[in-house]
Amino acid sequence: PIMINLQIALLKMSVLVLQLTLATSTMPIQQNMAEIEGKESVLTDTSSSTIKVYLTEMAIKHEIPIERMLWIAEKESQWETDRVGDIDKVCPDGRQMRARGLWQIVNCWHDISDEEAFSVVSSTIYAIPYLKNKPEIWSVYRYCQKWFTKTCPF
């Protein structure tokens, strides 16, 4: 319990640091931040630190727990925006399964193009309603207590 509490405290501290970074971010980071609502928007710097700042901003704007948003993104893709997973599985209709991008959006269940799935901004806009209202669609959230017994913050 002490170790878990310490890890949760460290994670909360990281969130505060991200919020502070967001509040005092330098102009180049702000220039890389896209207009949140536009489909044509892009995040030109896809380093994990910039993605974390962007996701923190989005979480605040859309009233999603910051910890939830950052946890799911990190555990699903390890901040690799071009990651493709689950290729060893098959969709019910016989197509090869592909979990794509930061949020590992699965082609079997979601009608979103590869371009959108691999875009941090487009995929995050797509994921927001799920992150807010149905985070259990991500197995890392649904099985957090089982898979991450010592580090699960939920």
What would you call the structural class?
Answer: mainly alpha
The helix count comes to: 8
Give the mean pLDDT. Answer: 83
Oligomer: single chain
Instruction: Indicate the overall shape.
Output: globular
- Indicate the percent of residues in helices: 40-55%
**Relative strand content:** under 5%
Q: Report low-confidence residues grouped into runs of 5 or more.
A: 21-40
Integer-rounded radius of gyration: 16 Å
Helix and strand element order: HHHHEEEHHHH
- Tell me the strand order in the biggest sheet: 1-2-3
User: What is the count of β-strands?
Assistant: 3
Largest sheet: 3 strands, antiparallel
Structure description:
By secondary structure, this protein is mainly alpha-helical. It has eight helices and three strands; from the N terminus they run ααααβββαααα. It has a three-stranded antiparallel sheet. A hairpin with a 4-residue loop joins strand 2 and strand 3 (105-106). The longest helix is centred in the N-terminal third of the chain and has 22 residues, at 2-23. The radius of gyration is 16 Å and the shape is globular.
